[in-house]
Write a structure and sequence with these properties.
By secondary structure, this protein is an alpha+beta fold. Helices cover 30% and strands 24% of the residues. A five-stranded mixed barrel has the order 1-2-3-5-4.
Length: 171
């Protein structure tokens, strides 16, 4: 028994950096997390992701519109945490919240509101997905799909309203 326990402890020690859990607090409201992100981000901007390095969690992004700390037209290198997201996983237009690290890379805020324009619903911090069906529920496939469609529309609307708010805050 002691031998087995020692092996388990050794495995945990040797793989220590890969055993990691995020502790993303569930915000009271989308507005609350938007306020938090606005106050705690060195750079907030809309950018066009032009390159993704998924093997090392990096990306390149060109600033289209800046709300704080990023120069329009400049291309920046960035990095994200693949465990605590948001994950930059597609090219295209993104709303970015981040900070500069010691290597002058933009670090996406973990558990933050960074999200793509194409699929804003993929950021769980920003959107609350519909509850999954339980085996004994009688909701039809059509009703379930309707809820999912409404959720996607709400996510897009939330993103649009957030950008309007960011423009007002930075006038």
């Amino acid at each position: 028994m002691k031998y087995t326990l020692k092996i388990i402890v050794l495995i945990f020690i040797l793989s220590g950096n890969s055993i990691f859990a995020c502790n993303c607090a569930i915000p009271k409201s989308l507005k609350a997390i938007q306020d938090y992100e606005f106050e705690n981000s060195e750079c907030i901007f809309i950018g066009e992701v032009i390159e993704i390095g998924s093997e090392n969690n990096t990306f390149k992004i060109k600033v289209v519109e800046s709300f704080n700390g990023a120069e329009i037209g400049i291309t920046y290198n960035g990095i994200y945490d693949k465990y605590c997201g948001p994950i930059i996983n597609e090219k295209g237009k993104w709303l970015i919240y981040g900070n500069y690290n010691s290597e002058n890379l933009i670090e996406i805020n973990t558990c933050g509101l960074t999200r793509s324009f194409k699929n804003p619903q993929n950021n769980i911090s920003a959107t609350k997905p519909p509850k999954p069906l339980r085996p004994n529920e009688t909701e039809s496939k059509a009703e379930s799909e309707k809820k999912r469609t409404e959720w996607k529309k709400r996510a897009k609307s939330d993103l649009e309203n957030e950008i309007i708010d960011l423009r007002k805050r930075t006038k």
